[in-house]
Amino acid sequence: MRFGRGLWAALLLLVLLLAPLSAHAIGEVTGRLGGVVTIDGTKDGLSGVPIVVRSKQLIGGSRTVETGDDGSYTFQSLPPGTYELEARIEGFAPVEQRGIVVVAGQLAAVDVVLRIGQITETKQIIEKRNPILNPESAVSTTTLDNQKVSRTPVFRQVQSIAQLAAGVGPGTTPSVRGGLSRYTRFLVDGLDTSDIVTGGLSSPMNFDAVEQYTLFTGAMDAEYNSLGLVQNMVTRSGGNNFTVDASVVIQPTAFYLRNRYSAQLPQQNGALIYDDRDPPVRDFYSVNANVGGPIVKDRLWFFTSFQFNYNRAMTTVPPFPWLGITDDTDRFRDTYTYLGRAKLTWQVTTGTRLSVSFNIDRNFVTNSAQQTTLAAEAERRTGRGGEWLVVLLDTAISPKWMFQMQAGFTTKRSVEDTMRVGDDGQPDRLTPSHNLRTSDQFNGVTYINSALGWNQETKYRIQVDPTLLYSSMGLGGMHNVKIGAQFAYMSYQHNVGIAGGRNYVDTVPGTPCNPADASTHVSCSQVTEYPDSLPNGDVAGAGWSTTADAVNLGFFAQDRYTIKRYLTLVPGFRFDLGVLRDYQGNRLGTLLGYGPRLSAVYDLLHDRSTLISAHYGRHNDIGNAFVADRGNPQQLAIQKNWDPATSSFAERNRSGGPGGQLFADKVTPPSLDEVSAGIRREMIAEMIVGVDYTYRRYANMWTNTETNQVWDPAGTRIVGYVNGERRRIFLAETPEDAQRTYHGLDLWVQGNPGHWGLVASYTLAFTDGTVSDYFTAYKQNARLNALYYGPMSDNYRHTLKGAIDYNFDFGLNASVRMQYRTGAPQWKVFQSPEDASFSLYRSPRGTSTGTRVNDPTTWAEFKLPDQFILDLQFTYNFQKLIGQRFDLMLLLFNIFNTATPTSIDQRNGTTFGAIQFRQDNFNAEIILRYRY
Amino acid sequence: MSQINPLVRSIRSSLLPSFLLLSVSGCSGLIDPDPYTGTIDPSAFDRQYKFQPTSRDDPALGCLMPRRGWDGTSLSDGPRFYYFGALFAAQLDLTGAFDTSRALPPSVYQLSGCNAPEGRSDPGEFNIRTDSYDKRVQYPILSQGLFPVQVGGATEPSAQASYRPFHMVVQASLGPAVRDRMGCNDVKRELSLLERAGWDRATKTFPEGGAKDLDFTFVSREQMKAGSARWKDWPMVNVGVPVGRSLDPVQACPFVTGSKAVYPQSLSDPASSFQFPAQAWFRGLLSGYVDGGDVPVVTDARKCPALFDTSKVCKIMAGQPTGCNFADGEVCTTTDPLKDGTCLAPPPVCPVINDLYVSTVEFVPPGGTGYDASDPLPRSKATFALTDPGDPTKTRKADALAIFSLAPGSKEFSPVCRVRWVDMSKMTACALSETATIRPRPLCTVSEILANPAAIVPTAPGKDVYVHCLSLASAK
Q: Does one domain contain both B317 and B374?
């Protein structure tokens, strides 16, 4: 069947019908297997050859396609895993190739060479694994399987995996190639389960429930609308054999090297060196069990998992003599985490597969703030939990048409509240909090109650992503067409309030201000009043409740068009539409984005060993519940100053409340334009080396521009208000100059040559811009805008990292993980005379004024020290000794016990430059794992 | 929006000055503007120039409040002036002639002829709320070393005594080669200005033939000494300090609780009750000053009231002073043959100085308890509580009263004043009095005070007190 005019017309019609639609990131949970069948000694393709791919566990049997006119063949939509492939035709000796690894979202290229002979001859069996280069895609991809990550010291956290890929920054919600952390998307079986407000992982996930990780970091095709990392996790599905995978993680305090730094800040490893006290308590224990197997052999499988984590950390709080506390106090943060998961996979036919998975998590934390500036009763408690349900349908309508459907529901709830308990045994929402603010701003203490009040959130998302795949020959090449729609509805509800409706600022230790008590007036300085939270008698205020909704619609169409085997073009286009609504149901805005894509991959030497690629693409952020929530006013806060003349508080200004937040009428959605080019080569068997250059420009990012305050020319004082009202009025908008620019060069290597496992890279990067995140301080003080452009804090000029392991024949695997990064840019900040906050800048982003603040020639780059850390992991498999798959793992983190500062005080003052956080001490972890 | 890290640019330009020249003849023909790198940080200013309130409810600290004086003509609305604290004798040495160790006096480049070049976006109207500076006019560019700030570990100049508020004016005009390729306020640093004119940083010279494209009217030391240089009194203040226009702090100072201050909607908005200081560039940073106006100078050393103690001992011998360099205008402080004196030396060029008469009741005379030489007319006291001598229960607030020998605005008026304390109790025949419900203090004209010299509190020789007395009219 030719890819004729009719189909193009149908595609065009579909595009037009769905034109106002748009899309979000979905993930591919299947891969493709394809190649060319040639006759031995020639390069000519052989058409009409039946090719059979087999795996009972993965597809319930086998599938067959015939080679096209040029000898090429493709199997679409194969679940990731290992397959066998057979070519058998009259006149040629049959060939079977085993151990073919199919990776989600990629083409496993397997070329078959047939030798003239008899079909009855003994078939030739090739055990060699297929090449790992994907010849049809320019997408920057790193694929890691469970085995590799299990042997890598990544703390068994799924959100730590992405750090292994080139161009990905540190942290569990990393910045990728100049993007924001919030752009990171975690997909489970192709469905976006990221937090709809913060981005990143919405809840922890069982590490061993994931079979394969695919990390997309750039040059993504039209099916993705992503401005950052996409980490797709293909979960385990069970199989025809019952399996058990259980493990225990042990990391008691004794496994930590004695803390050489302040015991007062155990986790942060604070500023003091050589503290002789006993190391602070840090315990971590985890049990994890996974069971999978058949319900109906070859047809229906199940996989379940459960995990429990307990984590205890200790903070030593200094004395508060005026509170009657004269000694250091050890305060413990206890975290309990429960994770559960169940998945059913039904191979309806060899061409149809349906899976349903359910995930649940619960997380409870006491003393979660762990700040030494909080009295015990002002500490925080947190409870979180969520569920998600994912349904996947994958069906072959015909040899050329396939249909995929991914649908799901995710929900997440959380409550943060004070540790102080009221008479009813519940968190106290009646008693106001107090901050002691002495002349030394750094020693302020919050006491009597938490100044942060309470925060209850409920988030949910419904997502449906149907995709149609079509493959055919035409126009001189092979077409793999994908068209799809992506729908997501997101809702965010939250209720916030301040205990007692007031937060006082006191100036005299031990004398909480009480306007009704004249003896305390000496301590009265300031109060922030929250009318919605003011109690009515013994009944706590209701707080401030809002909802925010977002609908994302998307449509994409792309064609993976392989011409003459050696050149693949991937044109694509997508429309994305976002509709945002505020708490009153008003439509805040409609964001429309157009995302053209074009990729080209050329097989330079015509042997699939060396590929050059180029890509251009535009992605649009059409908004989520987080952005919609910005259309809601914040809780009304009225700041009052104490007037000694009247012995009462007088209003100074107010923020929040109705009218305090505006949303721009016309919004250009934030967008990413990306241009990249690269070359990759399979240097030796199963090892690729690549070089990629990437240019990215993020434009029209969200700001919350303050529109009413008039600052003095130095940006230090508010001297007037546009409308005469003493209040802040914010406008959520996407100005053109809210932007970021990234240039990066990646040199990377990955593969599994011989006994080795390699994922390593070097990245040279330049990230400059004005916006560190959405709705941050940029444009909230017009006088400082010009200083906001500079190197972003996630701009690591040089990054060298790698995870390398070696398999010894006697069952030992030794793995080393190295990370080196040049220091992150910092920015000296001054205290604003306006509100005593550290929000005033005197020099451009990325610099410090030093001591000669008025002489720019003496200003200098301001960075953290370079970071280097080396982790080791040894995994010994006892199978050869005892016949059981029993693993003993020893993880050694930071083996050189480096203590490089990871955070320093950027505030002007006596503590400027003081170290706030350091790299974690050397510590060890033991994991016992048993698999059956 | 062209955005390059200004610091990076700054470093580039310092390392590779030739790049600047290249950029002058860039492909576009436009001259790259100096990056905007923020404002002067006043946190190290001497306190009288900060006007940084410790309490936003203290109007005198929260903003720069005008004072009301009296020129002897009208009581109801006397002239208004800003007081900027003391001027020490060394500061009156405009040319640095007395202390030859000092650098040349600071200068200010007044640049004319800038045009918004074609090809660059129209600078548009200046938005006083959102714009950092006005792109339609060129602010003056200050040369080095004139701020009341502490620079590095050195205290240059950290004390008021070393702060020199008087600026020598250097006229600079853009030549036709650059006039249309450079926007207003594109130049923000003295060095940048000089390099645009061809200044060689290495040799510290202009190319042969002088400056290119920019015409400077530099002032020579001889011209300074001859009194032909133009001087301005520009006390540098926090660029963000509101400069009140009304005597009523509630009306003029936005930081006062219950303030009714009206924010200016544009530059020089007549409806506003306060303005910001005039602005200039210093080292690429935006700075603020209050324009005290031209400073008249005298070149006759004998007329200079500012005499400096040379520490040289002089005596009266045979009825004549000896030991001083009388040819250069030095005078001996003693006329008593039995007592030694010291030689006082005048600078050859010094500002014309007015007298400002204040009451000993309201301001502590030198030597009195609480007298602060650095702040002789305390700024924190914009008003005084007056008590009815006949009925102490009756009080009212009154403006601080100062009587000028010459009123601000008059032709010969100088922004530099010498303070004369007057004991009003010894003034018995003043013609004017203030009308109020309580018995007013006596008001006297300058001539009446001068007619009763016993009322003037004498100061020690060479210890006269000099202050800024900038007229409000010029403080826009």
A: no
State the best of A653, A712, A778, A832 to mutate against chain B, taking most chain B CBs within 10 Å.
Answer: A712
Residue A441: pLDDT band by 50, 70, 90 thresholds?
A: very low
pLDDT value at A269 more than 80: no
Mean pLDDT of A128-136: 70
Are A854 and B3 an interchain contact pair (Cβ–Cβ within 8 Å)? no
pLDDT at B99: 60
The dihedral over CA atoms of A843, A845, A851, A857, expressed in degrees to the nearest 10, equals -70
Beta strands B402-404; B67-70: pairing state: parallel
Same domain, B124 and B205: yes
**Looking at the domain assignment, is residue B246 inside a domain?**
no
Spatial neighbors of A373 by CB under 8 A, at least 6 apart, are A443, A444, A445, A446
The pLDDT-based confidence of A371 (bands split at 50, 70, 90) is confident
Same domain? B340 vs B426? no
**Which residues lie closer than 8 Å to B414 by C-beta, 6 or more apart?**
B295, B296, B351, B352, B353, B354, B406
B397 and B320 within one domain: no
Query: Does a structural domain hold residue B264?
Result: no
> A580 vs chain B: nearest CA distance in angstroms?
29
pLDDT for B44 beyond 80: no
Distance CA A644, CA A626 (A): 42
Residue B330: domain span: 308-345
pLDDT number for residue B177: 73
Return the SS3 of A784.
helix
**Same domain as B317, residue B383:** no
Task: Give the domain ranges of chain A.
Answer: 20-126
Band of the pLDDT at A895, cuts 50, 70, 90? Answer: very high
For residue B207, say if its preceding peptide bond is cis, omega within 30 degrees of 0.
no
Select the residue of B56, B130, B274 nearest A782 (Cβ to Cβ): B130
Assess whether B283 and B340 both reside in one domain. Answer: no
CB–CB contacts below 8 A, A to B = 139
Q: Are residues B366 and B437 in the same domain?
A: yes
Would you call A641 an interface residue with chain B, using a CB distance cutoff of 8 Å? Answer: yes
Minimum-distance CB partner of B242 among A712, A721, A853: A712
For residue A847, the chain B residue with the least C-alpha distance is B7
Q: Select the residue of B4, B37, B276 nearest A856 (Cβ to Cβ).
A: B37
A851 close to B (CB below 8 A) = yes
Is B151's CB within 8 Å of A856's CB?
no
Which A residues 735-794 touch B at CB under 8 Å?
A: 736-737, 768, 770, 782-787, 789-791
Contact B299, B326 (CB under 8 A): no
The interface pTM score, or ipTM, of the predicted complex is 0.84
How far apart CA A924 and CA A867 sit, in angstroms, is 20
> What average pLDDT does this structure show over A444-466?
93
Query: Residue A852 and residue B152: Cβ atoms within 8 Å?
Result: yes
Among chain A residues, the shortest Cα distance to B280 is held by A713
Candidate from A737, A854, A859 with C-beta closest to B7: A859
Compare all CA atoms of chain B with the CA of A834 and give the residue at the minimum distance.
Answer: B56
Q: Which of B287, B281, B288, B289 is nearest to B33 (CA)?
A: B281
Output A518 or B123, whichever has higher pLDDT.
Answer: A518
**Chain A residues in contact with B262 (beta carbon < 8 A):** 720
Give yes or no for residue A777 having a pLDDT over 90. Answer: yes
| Stronger pLDDT, A155 or A243, i.e. the higher one | A243
**Structural domains counted in chain B:** 3
Q: How remote is the C-alpha of A213 from its chain's centroid? A: 13
DSSP bridge pairs for B250: none
On whether both B236 and B127 belong to a single domain, the answer is: yes
| Residue at B17 is within a domain | yes
* B129 falls within a domain: yes
Q: What is the CATH code for A20-126?
A: 2.60.40.1120
> CB–CB of B38 and A643 under 8 A?
no
Q: What is the pLDDT of residue A808?
A: 95
Task: Find chain B residues with C-beta within 8 A of A697's C-beta.
Answer: none
